[in-house]
């Protein structure tokens, strides 16, 4: 028997649960964040045994209240039996309770051996499905001190041992609560990862304990599921944390779950305690002062056994009352759970045959057939002549196939010409009109040509026709001669209803020759139907206020030449753009006083080498510009180049030169709003009045010339 028991221990790789966390069908000590569906009752029973072959204390015995050391039996059994039940009141809310029993074998010279009740645990767990593969959950437990104080040697929980080391084995002897957060990553057929963390509060000792665990289930949907977990419980105290960790329950739990039919689960598992890997010594041990009647027994022990085994059997019973298909039969009794809405069903939830024709309602295309009628496989009354009217309603049971019929099954002939509507191609023939087999009049357009010879059977009445019955059309434009107001149209020319060539834009040029088909009405066009711009300045003659502008001259929106500096000489003829306001000029646009042109000043501004430092003589020109801008409300753009600088520096130097002049003018009182500056690298760009690039160091552009450059 002992050999059989030892073999069972090796095969199950055993486990002993100590943490008071709500159970589930998913894990051993580490439950899923999920809850059972509404109405499901979950029942679980487990047997757990410490089986590491060691005595229940570190030094193989204990010290009694008289100071005597008593040796323990190495083979003292220590096991737990736990009954757990929960009920899902909602899809995401489960309520349950745990009732544990504990057994301790012979303890020398004491009454501690035997079976005793543990602390009752009441629990609630809620689940939040974040998405298809991730779930969050929360649980709360109340632990009620119902356990025996007269039995047991090995404390079942860490919080059973108080700060002063006083303890009972089967009970905390006072109430406690815990709050736990659960999470689950569900990869369906391959892997489920469960984890939890929480805090337990001991009411009397006013101490708190960290509860934690993590586990993985491999092949959760197969018949056999492999489980690996780690879990523990540790006091949350500010000192001696490592000591508390080493003498607190900490275990690795491998296991195997068999998923049996009928939502039944058999789990074989094992616990491997922390001290399986590390030898236990006095420093790591949990000092226990066990109360036994009037006796106090003192001894050190591990927080959890080195090795333990467990076997549990659980089952889910469906007591739900949901009705997903709303057929009046609850889902757990519904043999046909996907009945269509409104479908009549029997007590097992399956569709019925309401009209008693032998065809179930779910496939009956005629569910209201009168009782006693013979039906086809679709549940519809027989219709031997296939006219759409069942035999029992058909007054004309031998109607030819394809004929139109009325509600009585007789031929439907709306115009009364003797041809049924399905075969009547002219179902509005006047009453009494002779018709052919197609139901159309023998001479439909009354042009004297019978339909069988008439190639144009819809000729309007009164139109002259040829021998084929088609309207006469001398010019072949598609408009009968009797209606054609332009009977000599050219062949292929598009014409309107009157037979005259189309002129869509009404400019006097037919569409076939009109190269500008969308000309506005009333404007002058050439022979091609396009608007005229004689001076080629882009402004059509009817809008051009200056029709003789030289080709290429800058113009305004009215077609007139621009005069950017307002000196009376158009830009295209102005040899001195940028003349100051009020200056006297000659016929070429140049001021009689050269100092009255901004760009004359620009030529006097010179920089020293590849630098932004001006020659002293340059400040005279700048001061003249300041004087003029104070006199007249003109805006100015400063443009600079650096032709004497290397390529990589030219852009920077030209911009710094322009900014230097800008800052100088601002310093002299010119508003920043009236100035702009820009560097152009090695050369100044062309303008409308200066067609080519320029190597000038400085150029000034008044505001009106700036607007011109933007438009063109």
Write up this protein.
Among the domains are: 2-318, Porin; 322-347, no CATH class; 594-711, 60s Ribosomal Protein L30, Chain: A, CATH 3.30.1330.60. It has helices at 2-12, 241-246, 598-603, 618-631, 647-667, 703-711, and strands at 40-50, 61-63, 69-71, 78-90, 93-104, 114-117, 120-129, 134-144, 166-167, 176-186, 191-202, 207-218, 224-235, 250-260, 264-273, 286-292, 295-301, 307-318, 636-640, 675-679, 698-702. The chain contains six helices and 21 strands. With 712 residues, it is mostly beta strands. A hairpin with a 2-residue loop joins strand 16 and strand 17 (295-301). Strands 1-4-5-7-8-10-11-12-13-14-15-18 form a twelve-stranded antiparallel beta barrel. Strands 9-16-17 form a three-stranded mixed β-sheet, with no helix packed on it. The chain has a three-stranded mixed β-sheet with strand order 20-19-21.
Quick synopsis:
The chain contains 6 helices and 21 strands. It has 712 residues and is mainly beta. Among the domains are: 317 residues, monomeric porin ompg (Porin), CATH 2.40.160.40; 26 residues, no CATH class; 118 residues, OmpA-like domain (60s Ribosomal Protein L30, Chain: A, 2-Layer Sandwich), CATH 3.30.1330.60.
Write the layout of secondary structure elements.
Elements: H1 2-12, E1 40-50, E2 61-63, E3 69-71, E4 78-90, E5 93-104, E6 114-117, E7 120-129, E8 134-144, E9 166-167, E10 176-186, E11 191-202, E12 207-218, E13 224-235, H2 241-246, E14 250-260, E15 264-273, E16 286-292, E17 295-301, E18 307-318, H3 598-603, H4 618-631, E19 636-640, H5 647-667, E20 675-679, E21 698-702, H6 703-711
Parallel strand pairs: 9-16, 19-20
Antiparallel strand pairs: 1-4, 1-18, 2-3, 4-5, 5-6, 5-7, 7-8, 8-10, 10-11, 11-12, 12-13, 13-14, 14-15, 15-18, 16-17, 19-21
